[in-house]
Structure formats: structure tokens, C-alpha cells
Amino acid sequence: MITVDDFKDHFSRDFPYLPFWIEGKAYFKDDVVYDGINFYKSLVNANLAPLSNNQAWSLYNDSEENYLTDSDIEKAINEAITAFNAELFENNPNEPFCERRLVFLYLVAFYVVLDIKNSSSGLSSNAYTSFVSSKSVGNVHESYGIPAWAMNNPMYSLYLDNGYGKKYLSLLIPKITGFFYLSKGATTWEV
């Protein structure tokens, strides 16, 4: 379906990806890069030096946990495969626009965000808080509710957990919703 690079290309501004160091690329002062083991901060502008150059780079205190990794994306792709009905969407991989690919990307992004939220919560991830029914602090009040069409469908309510799931639903629902009409009639055929 899609690769990690496809995901990164489509959501280039949406997630903080690990800033892997690229040999030959010019970095500017205070740019942070990662070599797979350590993070480094550029000390100069137009930095083309190798990471071993202490005049151009210094070790930087950061963590992979602050970034979306390729394994996070691969995990979400595998999860999305189990929930995606590809037959609902047109597949034209040779065209600049592929409906199936686009919808699948949003489903993967939904799982990326859900997985990150769950991992950030750890053992507390079972506390469901997406649809606050009412909360107040002083004069400030907050109230949300599940729309009736989603409340009656447990899968829809799950997708409403984040913006990517909502976008996925906006692309899915027209494909699975339809109307039919019945009209009373008779035939002139006799037995």
C-alpha cells in the first residue's frame, strides 16, 4: 500500500520526524541532527562538517521519544491494514492522484496519533476522555458530546478521537452511505 517515505512525504509538516544527519547537506547554527545514536547541535552556519568535528558540532541532550520514528509509522501501517477495506476506493496508482492511497494515509495517521497518545499515557491509556461531557473550572465550562450518528457506531466514535480519524471518516462515509427508495407497484403478468 504505502511506505514510510510515502507517509513522511504526505505529512511533511504534521509530525516531528527524527532529524537524521545527511552527509553533504548544509546545516545552520542551532540545527539539531541525529546519527542513530546521539543528537548533535550545529555550532556554525553553513555547516558541512562531519559530526566528529568538535568545532562544528556539539552533543545535544534529546531523545528519540520526542520524535516520530520509522518504526512508529510501520506499526501504524500494519494496524491500518487490518482495518482498511481497500475495495471501497478507486485504485489508480499510475495517476498523480490515487484515492485508495490517500484514504489509507489518513487511516495510518490516525493510528500513529492514537498509538503515540496511548504510549504517552502508559497504564493510564484506558481512561477514555475524548468526549468530555462536562467540565468546569471557575467560570470556564467545557462540554462535548458524541454525535448521534457516531454514538450508535462504536467504530465511528473511535475515529473521532483525533483529526486524522475525522478526515478518514469524511473520506469513508460517502463510500459506505447510500440511499434506496421503495415504491409500491404491481405487475400485469397473470398466473
Provide structural commentary.
The structure is a single chain. With 191 residues, the chain is α+β, with helices and mostly antiparallel strands. The protein has two domains: 4-8 and 68-122 and 149-176, no CATH class; 18-67, Carbohydrate-binding module superfamily 5/12 (Seminal Fluid Protein  PDC-109 (Domain B)), CATH 2.10.10.20. It has six helices and five strands. The longest helix has 23 residues, at 99-121. The radius of gyration is 24 Å and the shape is elongated. The mean pLDDT is 87.
Layout of SSEs?
Elements: H1 4-10, E1 32-34, E2 39-42, E3 57-60, H2 70-83, H3 99-121, E4 135-137, E5 140-142, H4 148-151, H5 154-159, H6 163-176
Antiparallel strand pairs: 1-2, 2-3, 4-5
Helix pairs in contact: 2-3, 3-6
Offer a concise description of the structure.
With 191 residues, the protein is α+β, with helices and mostly antiparallel strands. The protein contains 6 helices and 5 strands.
Query: What structural class is derived from the secondary structure elements?
Result: alpha+beta
Number of helices: 6
**What does the radius of gyration come to?**
24 Å
Strand order of the largest sheet: 1-2-3
Helix content: 25-40%
Give the total of beta strands: 5
Shape field:
elongated
Q: Tell me, rounded to a whole number, the average pLDDT.
A: 87
Q: Give the termini distance in whole angstroms.
A: 55 Å
